Amino acid sequence: MRPIAYERQVKTMWYDGIFESLLALRDEERALQMSAYMRNQFPFLGITTIPRKAAYKKFLATAKKEKRVDFDFVDQCFERVEREFQYAGVDYLLAVQDCLGPEDLAKLKQYIQTKSWWDTVDGLDGVVGSIVQRYPECKPILLEWSVADDIWLRRVAIDHQLGFKEKTDTDLLAEIIKNNLNQKEFFINKAIGWSLRDFSKTNPDWVRTFLSLHKDGLSNLSIREGSKYV
């Protein structure tokens, strides 16, 4: 009988190459610069976006064809120290997002709340948005997140409809933003501005009216960002 460790190694063989490829690209000098840019919250390997994504492009293409989600891989990405591994996990989830459903929101919530910062959270809001767009019954969960103590869950709730254009649920967008009026938190106010600015490209009149109705509760940052195209 093969040892359990051996069985696990065989099962996860497909993504071992991702970790090896990223480690081979380590650049210590750039790693210090990238960490400083992120306020020294996370250590980095020192790999910029283009070579990082190139390192695992073929692996993600293969994984996408399998029509399943390997959360063991994403777990390992979030357990590893350097930030590029978390980026790989988020990119993987984006690649297989069509395979995710309502039952996976709890797992995504875990990733949002693990090593949280805007760089990973803003990638995950697209994954969450994909689920909500395909399964509208999940909208109440985003309303719950919009009043959570965790600012990152609230940020995802605010921005999960980015790119929805004419499919944007304006009632949901309005309620979520109204749940976050009169805030002093930069990342919340920035998210509100982005959500309004993005939708203004599709329906500037709606955004203009919303800004007018709620100007007393919106921060200057939210108003400045949200009114950029109106």
Automatic annotation (TrEMBL):
Family annotation (InterPro entries): ARM-type_fold (IPR016024), DNA_alkylation (IPR014825)
Cite the SUPFAM superfamilies for this sequence.
ARM repeat
The record's Pfam families line, in alphabetical order, gives: DNA_alkylation
Per its record, how is this protein called by name? 3-methyladenine DNA glycosylase AlkD
Q: Which organism is it from?
A: Trichococcus patagoniensis
